[in-house]
């Protein structure tokens, strides 16, 4: 560049929404790159997406790679939208670049040219070395969007933002967030998969069907080869339908619900998890096995109607923790065959959770699986990073976002090496069903089905054979300033406001088998309270008592 000509509809002053309405953004309004990118009322996003796409194009040139831009606000209401950037290997954006993106977004219209010039100056040395080696042909911005009506207008903002720096732009249309991550990685690592929607379907389908063939259902199996999917009225509906068209229904039958209603409204993985309630259009009758996606299909929660519950629509959840433990058990069993060959290299495996993991799952990992659970801060980037320390790293947030990551050692010893032992072939195939770039509701669902079939488990079996959840309750508390709350100890202990943690401790001590913590959200201006106790009534009482204490501060 750097002759900066920004179309007026994408400036702060002229910011224009998808209906053509002007929605100016004051120069002093600041935005932060949260746990999952920039996420706000969709009206604010046109100027913001334009600037982010420009940053993405710079990063693409700097690394001579494909960089992803995903336009989504996931499980948030339909009126919101958001944008996040994806790094070349399909990971979340590098931390230093989150800062660059924040600087560019927060510049006033008048400051923008100098902010851009400063950033480009920092980049130019690195980029020059690529250009000198003739390496610019791989730079491109790959952009996907969820099903929100504001998506196409933001897609156009992204396209014009990356055009500023003459970087190739690829619109991959309405996709789930994990598909975008997968395609970005496929562009940069061609041996991974074909960098197209069809490449994604083919890779996952083939791995699933081969693994299915390597799976033996035990005698007396109670496995149910059917699942009813709540699509949250989001992108899961069209895209999972596409994928399931490729897989014959005698492998797995999927019934789709909540495909065309209001996005995330009374349905979806977040609703089911927080309310512990059946989503709309489910009545608990004749629904043996059901699962929910969130709006952009990167979360998966299994559920069924809760037997004998007082609340009429209460749901029993098989959440991220239950999925993680199921995977761990399965992988551990296959891995045993590898270690029995007395190899020189020991393939290690770890599980990463957050403080929201149900206490019973953490005990199951420690006492039954004999693994050391690792607890990190909330946010996929922290879990992903920690899990990447292992050859096989399983990570899940209780809300159903998670995956398994595999090291380069695993890749060369197991995945790319011909295997004669069935358990090792299973392990290699399992790693291909999984979308290791990021939690993926589709891939995770298929992997869960393989595990359940392998063990011959019904939902009753899955509920009983791992562990029983400790009753828990989550509450959102509206506060004036979430910045007033600061935590330590993987967010489980408050250091600010002073004195609050002591009061929490005193209250928690009054309940049996209790555990609770309070932390500020990274995505909403609220404080979250999480409480566990011996009964659901007590967990609710403890949570609500803590809410009152928080409000007092
Ligand atoms: C308790 C909870 O579910 N928190 C969610 C939520 O983060 P908060 O920082 O708690 O608002 O949104 C994140 C992004 O989607 C997700 O990673 C995380 O798990
Ligand atoms: Mg999501």
TrEMBL record:
Cofactor: Mg(2+)
Keywords for the protein's UniProt record, in alphabetical order: Isomerase, Magnesium, Metal-binding, Phosphoprotein
Cofactor detail note: Binds 1 Mg(2+) ion per subunit.
Its EC number(s): 5.4.2.3
GO biological process, one term: UDP-N-acetylglucosamine biosynthetic process
GO molecular function: magnesium ion binding; phosphoacetylglucosamine mutase activity
Residue ranges constituting the Alpha-D-phosphohexomutase alpha/beta/alpha domain according to the UniProt record: 56-108, 136-189
Residue positions of the active site: 74
Positions with a binding annotation for Mg(2+): 74, 294, 296, 298
Known catalytic reactions: N-acetyl-alpha-D-glucosamine 1-phosphate = N-acetyl-D-glucosamine 6-phosphate
Alpha-D-phosphohexomutase C-terminal domain boundaries: 496-538
Binding site for substrate: 397-399, 519-523, 528
Protein's name in the database: Phosphoacetylglucosamine mutase
Organism of derivation: Caenorhabditis tropicalis
């Amino acid at each position: 560049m750097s002759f900066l000509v920004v179309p007026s509809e994408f400036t702060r002053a002229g910011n224009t929404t998808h209906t053509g309405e002007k929605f100016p953004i004051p120069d002093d309004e600041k935005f932060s790159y949260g746990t999952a990118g920039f996420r706000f009322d969709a009206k604010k996003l046109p100027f913001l997406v334009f600037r982010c796409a420009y940053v993405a194009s710079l990063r693409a040139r700097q690394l001579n790679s494909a960089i992803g831009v995903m336009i989504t606000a996931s499980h948030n209401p339909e009126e919101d939208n958001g944008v996040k950037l994806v790094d070349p290997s399909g990971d979340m954006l590098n931390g230093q670049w989150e800062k660059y993106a924040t600087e560019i977004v927060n510049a006033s219209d008048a400051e923008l040219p100098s902010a851009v010039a400063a950033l480009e100056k920092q980049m130019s040395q690195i980029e020059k070395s690529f250009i000198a080696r003739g390496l610019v042909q791989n730079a491109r911005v790959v952009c996907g969007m969820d099903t929100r009506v504001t998506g196409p207008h933001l897609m156009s903002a992204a396209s014009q933002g990356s055009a500023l720096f003459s970087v190739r732009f690829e619109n991959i249309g309405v996709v789930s967030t994990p598909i975008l991550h997968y395609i970005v990685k496929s562009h940069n690592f061609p041996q991974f998969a074909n960098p197209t929607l069809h490449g994604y379907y083919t890779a996952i389908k083939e791995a699933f069907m081969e693994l299915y063939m390597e799976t033996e259902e035990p005698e007396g199996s109670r496995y149910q080869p059917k699942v009813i999917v709540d699509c949250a009225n989001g992108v899961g509906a069209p895209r999972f339908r596409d994928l399931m068209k490729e897989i014959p229904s005698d492998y797995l039958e999927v019934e789709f619900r909540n495909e065309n209603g209001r996005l995330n409204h009374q349905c979806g993985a977040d609703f089911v998890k927080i309310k512990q309630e059946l989503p709309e259009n489910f009545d608990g009758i004749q629904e043996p096995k059901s699962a929910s996606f969130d709006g952009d299909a990167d979360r998966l929660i299994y559920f069924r109607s809760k037997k004998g519950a007082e609340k009429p629509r209460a749901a029993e959840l098989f959440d991220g923790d239950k999925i993680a433990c199921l995977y761990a058990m399965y992988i551990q069993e296959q891995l045993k065959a590898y270690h029995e060959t007395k190899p020189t290299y020991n393939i290690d495996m770890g599980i990463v959770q957050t403080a929201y993991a149900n206490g019973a799952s953490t005990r199951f990992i420690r006492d039954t699986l004999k693994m050391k659970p690792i607890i990190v801060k909330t946010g996929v980037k922290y879990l992903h990073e920690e899990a990447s320390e292992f050859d096989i790293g399983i990570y899940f947030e209780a809300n159903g976002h998670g995956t398994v990551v595999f090291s380069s050692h695993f890749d060369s010893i197991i995945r790319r090496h011909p295997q004669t032992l069935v358990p090792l072939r299973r392990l290699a195939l399992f790693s291909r069903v999984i979308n290791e770039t990021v939690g993926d509701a589709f891939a995770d669902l298929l992997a869960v089905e393989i595990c359940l079939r392998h063990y011959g488990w019904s939902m009753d079996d899955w509920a009983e054979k791992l562990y029983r959840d400790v009753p828990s309750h989550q509450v959102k508390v509206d506060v004036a300033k979430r910045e007033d709350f600061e935590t330590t100890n993987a967010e489980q202990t408050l250091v600010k406001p002073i004195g609050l943690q002591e009061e929490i401790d005193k209250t928690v001590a009054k309940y049996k088998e209790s555990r609770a913590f309070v932390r500020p959200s990274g995505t909403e201006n609220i404080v979250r309270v999480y409480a566990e106790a011996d009964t659901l009534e007590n967990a609710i009482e403890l949570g609500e008592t803590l809410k009152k204490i928080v409000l007092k501060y």
